[in-house]
Amino acid sequence: MDFAVAKGRRRMLRLTTLAIAALAGFGSEPALSQEGTELVIVTSGGTFEKALQKNFYEAFTAETGIKVHPVSASYAEQWAKARAMAESGRTEWDIVTVGIGEDAANRDLLEKLDCAGMPNVKTQAIDGACREYTLLRTIGGTVLAYNTDTFKEKAPASWADFWDVAAFPGPRAMPNYGAPYVSLAVALLADGAPLSEVRDRALDVPRAFAKLDKVKPDVSIWWKTGDQSQQAFRNGEVVMSMMWSGRAMQLQQAGQPIEVVWNNASAELSSWGILKNAPHKEAAKAFLNFFMSRPEAHLAFSSQVFWDTANRAALDKTYGSSETFMKRFENMITYDSAWLAENRSEIVTRWNDWISR
Amino acid sequence: MSALTSADIGQDRSARPGTADASEGRGRFGRVASLLLIAPLGLLLAAVFFLPIVNFLSRSFIEPQLTLSHYAELFGEPLYLRILLRTMWIALATTALTLVLGYPVALLMTRINGVAAAVVSLCVIIPLWTSVLVRSYAWIVLLQRNGLVNQSLQHLGIIDQPLTLLHTDGAVLVAMTQVLLPFMVLPVYATLRNIPPELTRAARNLGAGRLRAFLAVTLPLSLPGAAAGAVMIFVLALGFYITPALVGGPRTLMIATLISQQATELSNWPLAAALSFVLLVLSLGVTMAFKRLLGVDRMVHHG
Hints:
Chain B: Residues 84-290 form the ABC transmembrane type-1 domain. The complex is a heterodimer. Chain A is an alpha/beta fold.
């Protein structure tokens, strides 16, 4: 019975896919190209993709002759499409962007990486950059950012201060974009939980929501896009914000009176992953190895997008020593991928319920 | 503006060629020819619309095996029902607003000529050519803290501190109404234009005042158009997505947002399918109810 249903469904899926492919075929790409000449890389697009193109893709093409086709898709969209491609048996992408917890949730779609087989990773990447399914690409944080004009004498320095409206009065901004676990982790720290109980651990969800209840009345902006979080600062709508470090640093460079607190920031890690059914798997592997080389490219890239990368020499240059960076990183919140994959849906539903009341 | 001669009426008829000719055009093609003409569209819709939708919706019943568990989850979790109700409330409010604002515009369009008519029609139609995204962002520019609305109010000395206009339910209603307004104006205008003006004149001739003639003749005859617009707007608003996400606050969570979240961020397609199915049934139900109540059919038959 189950089998028959599944079979019928699969046939229908195949029919649909065929129909769409037939239609799409009129005006679109040629059949999948041969291994060795092309590579399809999916990122979130925009200026970020342009910076990748300028600093990495072009150099890779120059060295290997392999043409890189950049494709842009939001994180969410990317996985839905990758899954649909895998189901229809026609995967067109090679390298995808893997966010926090997404490796565990999409393990069935990802190719295992041969870290030892990538010499540049061994010699040039920071420790732990290469994992079973992912190669660390960019590093940033969700940080506490505050208006330096508002808080001249006493500045907020921790998530507890973010919650302390008596000592640091004024409207706040917090994220509301589909990764509520970041706010949960931060709330736990604000509630006095030590980092060791939060970092890479299952989160105490009820306790976190109880703490979030306390800050909710003082949050005037719940941002959904990075641009909204910046606009809230520019407009003077908030004096303190929980936002992406890259966005805060961009404001800083534009002359806004804003300071970033890295203490216990939530790590924003994005990695490269190779799809299991990637049409150009060898080229993809070659690119990952190539990506980790050339520190000068990493430096140029970082200055353009305000994200650090996992290249050790580049971090040495930016932070004096990559150890300084690693120390800061050890003080940041990271997540238990498996726990997140297991509980993400429930957390998101609970968050939606909480935020919409 | 008093008594009419038969010559006037005759002139008026010939000035509106659309009405008389339309009925003659019917039945020009035989049954087979008609079917053949429709076939390409039918096949296209079947292949790229109905098949994928049926395939997608069926997932809510057969994944991972034959089950109703996704519906149990949907109705067991208060969030979904609450958001569904809120979505319906926002859709209903938008429909009411577009009706109140759109009807007079449609009426005006039937009463003016020349440049004025062209200007009004352009004002109604041009927004349709603009992407919903652009129109929503325009509302952000207008409504934000240092936006045009707040700045004007401050300049005029009406307020001291900027008002919180963006990220509120009000902002969502205003933006959605603006985005959907043409879908009310155009069908109402179409029905109004097809009401023979001699009917109003007859009413006036029989002693009715302007208001009474409107209420007793024009308004009832234009209801099918208003009903068509209302159904269209209500159904479109139910699935609205971009505008509420951009100009709404955290509380203006719409069901479409939840569906997309389940489908893309959480890769829970069966639950997304179940939510879509409930939304589809609701939309169909409302369309049927409207049809029954207001007789949308009539509009079609009257051309």
